[in-house]
Amino acid sequence: MKYTGNVIKYGDNVDTDVIIPARYLNTSDHNELASHCMEDLDKTFVSRVQQGDIITAGQNFGCGSSREHAPIAIKASGVSLVIAKSFARIFYRNSIVECPEAVDGISEGDKVEADLDSGIIRNLTTGKEYKTEPFPEFVQKIIENGGLMQSIANGIIA
């Protein structure tokens, strides 16, 4: 399972209130949520995010209130992966890769490839590589099937 994209970089404590502001929680339309993703943190995000882009962030990504709209907004905006130094407990299962060294070594706009089968993150811009834990097979199956709820509905996991 490989993801390749350009990096949009944020700092520490990116909370769910800036991922998708509360004023937009009255919709479940994925495109509408994507159109407001990160707008209180980064007014340029929606206009510059491209399909497959990767967010890198510091400590405690996804802190704040528990809302399913936040990961939906990120995914619907085209982001393929979030790599952070750490994730908030309430957000951990929505995002995948913790790798502080990669976050420190990757800059805004770098092109990155993350091979989650091998646990290798490559900065294609600089040529540097970072190691993280590869995904266990059961996690790969969940992702391939569209997430936990879809995997349960498809009988992939019980």
List strands and helices in order, with pairings.
Elements: E1 2-9, H1 16-19, H2 30-34, H3 45-48, E2 54-57, H4 69-76, E3 81-84, E4 97-98, H5 100-105, E5 111-115, E6 120-123, E7 129-131, H6 137-144, H7 148-153
Parallel strand pairs: 1-2, 2-3, 3-4
Antiparallel strand pairs: 1-5, 5-6, 6-7
Describe the structure.
The chain is an alpha/beta fold and 158 residues long. It has one domain (2-153): Aconitase, domain 4 (Alpha-Beta Barrel), CATH 3.20.19. It has helices at 16-19, 30-34, 45-48, 69-76, 100-105, 137-144, 148-153; strands at 2-9, 54-57, 81-84, 97-98, 111-115, 120-123, 129-131. The chain has a seven-stranded mixed sheet with strand order 4-3-2-1-5-6-7. A hairpin with a 4-residue loop joins strand 5 and strand 6 (120-123). It starts with a strand and ends in a 5-residue tail after the last helix. The mean pLDDT is 90.
